[in-house]
């Protein structure tokens, strides 16, 4: 108690000295400002956080930090701003939604989400942003600059938040947990996207056709279906893509890289969501449910395809004959009837097919493998279509009695 009293007296004494001295410091403030400006060029960071050892360079006005008596006194609001990342203090409130922010500049940026104001424009491509820091990060997409490096691997990032998300791939930390299904995520954006699988919210709408999406990136990719823009080209085969992510996945068809491996059976995949879909074959999880008939699916794409059986929607149309399809893969297969292309060849008999799945079915005629079996009589078939025919011809009476 005595020690606390002495500490408080020392802080109050410092505060009184600071007030009396402030007038005499007016002439030196410009000099201090120049010193701060110098640090932005030299990278010098003079103020260290005693909680996480992060070193800071910025400050605005001398103020007293009276919050934690056990910590060293640091008279700069730049450090106080950083301390709020530890304390969670958010004193600035939005009067529209009540959202709280740690500092006034963050509040101003947040308010622009209500007004849609985007005052910061890229002078190279014209893209505009509501926040100056977003513009700075965006500019690195032109320069290729990635100043934030992981100290555990060689990977580098254009944004500190991207680095923080990446670091969790090393630690395994998943701090963002869904309160509906318990699924946890390492990245806040993935968490927000996941929550929309429960709410069915699709906030990103195409202004040309009205189609809505759960993710902004998906909207951007979709918009290129209207413009035909494919800015990302493979330097090995020349194939072009609307989205850089698709190009990176395509490149793995050349390298054979499959970075996503199942920790139960060892099977590897080129895409992370293919691994997630595969993992559900082990767990039996089917989180995607049709709100019309209640049927559940392991994959969101399969749910979307199924929903078209209710709506009759056929969004994929052949540009040669006008025939429309519910599935994009069906359109691709159909187009080969015009070109005659059969790129998938059996290594045993040389028979060629327009579709990879047809080749897989054909291979079973060589191996004798029969994956599809009926639950009434146990008879097995190499193709699902043959099983369905069998059910309709022999077990239709059983279905009437159920």
From TrEMBL:
Note the superkingdom of the native organism.
Eukaryota
Q: Which residues form the signal peptide?
A: none
Annotated SMART domains: ZnF_C2H2
| Any GO MF annotation of the entry | zinc ion binding
Locations listed in the record:
Nucleus
Where is the C2H2-type domain positioned along the sequence? 92-119, 120-147, 148-175, 176-203, 204-231, 232-259, 260-287, 288-315, 316-343, 344-371, 372-395
**What protein family is recorded?**
Belongs to the krueppel C2H2-type zinc-finger protein family.
UniProt-recorded name of the protein: Zinc finger protein 33B
| Organism of origin | Mus musculus
Query: Lineage of the source organism?
Result: Eukaryota, Metazoa, Chordata, Craniata, Vertebrata
**Name of the gene this protein is made from:** Zfp33b
